[in-house]
Amino acid sequence: MTGVMDAIKHHATSVAPLPTVTPGNTIEYQKSGDVGNRTLWVVFVLMMLSSIAFYAMAFRVPAQKRLFHILTAFITTFAMISYFAMAVHDGVSYNEIIIKHAQKHFPDTFTTVYREVYWARYVDWSITTPLLLMDLALLAGLPGANILVAVVADVIMILTGLFAAFTVEEGPKWGWYAMACIAYLVVVYQLAFNGRGVVKGRGQKTATFFSAIAGFTLVLWTAYPIIWGIADGSRNLSVDAEIICYAVLDVLAKAVFGFWLLFTHDSMSDTTYSLEGFWSEGFSKDGAIRVGDDDEGA
């Protein structure tokens, strides 16, 4: 009897037990490393130096003719503040994305991805890109109605991009992205079509310069949504690579743009706006705007 029981016991323990625990959720953090952090500090310094240079250039001309200088200096100043916030990790949050892995014979598993979203970058863009558009619109001589449409479309583009960056579900995320792209097309239309049509009346040199610098800007701006789609959108680009790509674009679209605009502006009299009255004298005189080389009151 004892031998039979031992045989049964041996037979029962020779079969491996069926698994009762299935793999659970895994967590993945996508965040910046040393390369990304150093890049943020480098761009902060570049934007700071550019701002100092632009303010210095502004003080070299009369107050009546500082409009482009002030707008351009503000662009790099806000960019400097944004990059400082990102470098010290004050302008960063995590977006939680849950990815489902379907299993055939076992319960589905999930991967929870926490990716850094630099929301300070969107705050920067929501301020600096309208200022940059003002530079280009004033250079071309766009009417106020066209400037307003371009600026509002630009703000919509940035805000919908921010909403897309923090949206978890794929459908709504790409819906926000599509809205941002449509808004960007409105900006392109205002600059490339209306801007080129208006600037022809300001002389050949100004028209050629506007076409060059506006084309340069639009090429750079077109790269932003492409990077967004690869990085925040599909998460196929590391956070460090995302930081480097945006850093290169920001330096080109703000600092390099600014130096190009101001050096050329200072050498071309027909691009110079002379703002008097409240702009340069406060409430003591009536306001006036003149275009050209009239140095009266300078």
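(the above was protein one; protein two follows)
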Amino acid sequence: MASADPDPDRPQGPSRINSIILRNTLRYTLSAKEYKNLHEYLVTRSPKIIQRKALPPQRYSTIVQTDGDFNAAAVRASLRVFVSLQTGLNLWDMVNEYILARGKPKKPKPKTSIFKSSNFRLSLSLSLILLLHRLLYRFFWRLRKNLLSKDATPFRRRNPRVSKSLTSRLAPAIGASLAGFALSIHPSDQLRITIAIYVATRAIEFTYNAFEHDGWFRKKPWWVGSWMLMPFATGQLLHAFVFDRDCFPK
């Protein structure tokens, strides 16, 4: 004799699968708090037919259950970065083609699939960097916390070097920096080189500021600072302008 279903009101079969898909779609699109704000400022001012069909905030919160869900929040942020960049780049292409380039001879563009277009790959690259950085930072932070607990004492004794590396204060930041490899998705053109140089320069600047904040440069003269990089940078530009003219755009 078959046992009775403990939850007879729960949808079965295809309807259950559809409800799971709908719940996950809503979960990775809007959080309960965001839907509540959207409902207060937009739905309540909409026509009554939309108000009747819209879910109440409490019902939406029960369906998605996003309170404290770090992974869902990270995916939502990544998806929004992707959609925003893709939309902005496509709008810029339209403005550049139909407004700024009006009256100029149009160059034929080779047809490429959307997955090989530079806009799609740039949006995908930056959104994945954000997603992977958040997930990796959380992973290494929780790993460090677990390794510092009393239960991990045997592991720390057996693997002192590995434990010292993983329990360092810099371990989460260094582990999260692996997300930068997602930049390789972007086409290898000048923009990717520019982004890589900018990120490396900012990383060096943040490292210097951290060392200065920790008191590593307390005895330095007052005239020593980041502004001393300016002569070297301008000197290199002047040297390239005089001796390597082909490096400058015409």
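Reviewer note on protein two: The radius of gyration is 27 Å.
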